[in-house]
Every structure is written in structure tokens, then in C-alpha cells.
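re the bet — no i am not wrong, look at it urself. input seq straight from the record:
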Amino acid sequence: MTTLESKQMTTGKSFEYALLVQFEEKLRDKTNIEVIKNSAFEITKGCFENVSATEQSEYLLSASFSVNFLMDIEPRLSNDIGKNDILQFEILSDNYGKSGDVRDVLAIRLLQKWEIGVSAKNNHHAVKHSRLSSNIDFGEKWLGIKTSKEYFNTVTPIFNNLDKIRKESGAKKKWSELGDYHSTIYVPILKAFIKELKNLHKNNPTKIASNLVAYLVGNKDFYKVIKGKNSVEIHAYNLNGTLNLPFKNILPKYKTPKVPLPTEIIDISFKEDSNTTAIVTMDNDWTLSFRIHNASSRVESSLKFDINLLKSPKKLFKNTLNISHD
């Protein structure tokens, strides 16, 4: 993990903890609350306690604005059906993300068979950082459909060669020493990826587009809370219609419509004037970019994707809260 990545992890986890603190603070007089103190909770608490006091108060302020807004659009946070209807808060471990559940902080009411999740982001909009290597079957992992032999026949020799370079140099060889590695390594791997995704889509036309978005964006409905410099953005990924529900006759203050998943892939191709990025265009206004890169300055036998949502449906609810520092 690079220093930037570990810094991002610390700030992200600190923000998760700040959200949890604010949820607890604002709701404890309204309903019975229980915080599940699992190992993920301890990790976020440790990250929060390790940032400066200034950062702590900044995270808490952003979290405070976010939680107030979420309480307005999720009446079930504040309202229970009785003393036994306990509102539980849980921080999910990063392992959930591997199966496409991107939520970080979960609010659960077992009695109401209800839950909402929040994905907390600090200053970044990327959706996922997935890897490719000679033993990662991205088809199976992302889409539930195995990748072909042809794909592996193309990429395995390239990754094996990288592994050989890494081992022979005692893991010291740098990418910058490999010459024009974009055209010799990135391009063939990205081409193989594009070709495979096209074939998977051709053979399973009804599944691939929606499975791809569910895996990359999130297969469980969630709110994405993105903390910026003086603002917080809240996006409602209401893909299955489980967000924004009323409580009895108490309605949410704003509607967050159900967001349609894509049903087909319209185009997969290289981004114009780029040999590192593929663009996947789907119907219902979904477009994703896949930028391939090396995660470390030293040669490794895997590559990482930086995946971004370039376009999302108009129905995706987005709201920006401006934070005033009094």
C-alpha cells in the first residue's frame, strides 16, 4: 500500500467513525441504539483517534450535516415501533466490498426488517479499484460468469513475465525501467479485457450490464456520502427501491427515486487518445471508465483498475450540502 493509499484509508475510516458518532449522538434521545463493536469498529476508531484534532472536528462537522440530512430522508432512523425495536449501527469490514457490497456504515432495525447503508468517501469519487492478474477471474468475480480460456491465454504470459522480472530483480525493478510498458503491457491486457467483456456480453446479453453496475457501484442500495472541502455530497443509489421508505404516515422530506440499472452494453472501446483507459457505455445513461495502472512504482505481477462512473441516470438523487464554519 502506498503512503497516499494508506492516508486515504485513514481519512476514509476516520470519516466512517465520525458518521457513526453523529448517528449515535443525534438519535440516542429518539430511539434505543446499539453500536456493534466489532473489529471493523475498532479499526475506524483507531484511525479517527490518530488524526489531528482539527481533522477530527472537520470530519464530525461534515458527518453532522450528513446525518441531519439522512434523518430527513429516512424517517425510520428516528422512529421505532416500541422499546424492543432497537436501532443497531455496524461498521462493515472491507471484505464485503469484494463481493460488491460497498456499504461502510450500516443502520439496522431487525424488528422492521429494515436497513440502510452509507458508503463514506473522503474527497474521491472513484467507485472501485479492482485488480487484474493471471489468476483473477474477473468474469466470475464481478459478473458471476467465468472468463474464457482465450482471455487467460492472452494475459497469463504477460503477467508471468512481470512476475519473472520482479523475482529476478529481488522485487527491486521499477516500471520506469521497462521502457514503453504502456504499449507492451497495458495495451494488450486492456485489449484482452475489452474483447472478453464484449464476448461475455454477447453470450449473456441480459445479465452483464446490470451485474457489472451492481458489482462496481454496489449490489445493495446505499447512500454515498462524499466529504469535500466545505461541502458534503449525498447520492442515493436506490437501485432496488429499499431507500427512502416512509414510517407509518411519516413521509421522507425529499424523494430519492428508484434508479434504473442498465440492461445492455452499447459500446466498449478505448478512450480517445488514451492507451490506458477503456470506456463502457450502457443504456439507461450509465457510463464507466476503466483506467489501468500499476499500483506501485516497483514491478508487480498484477495491475489495478481505477474505475469511475462517468455518467449515471438522471434519476440518481444527488444533493450538495454546503458547510458553514461558524
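see?? The helical segments are 3-27, 39-50, 53-73, 95-98, 138-143, 149-168, 181-203, 208-217. told u. also Residues 3-125+219-260+314-322 form one domain. so pay up
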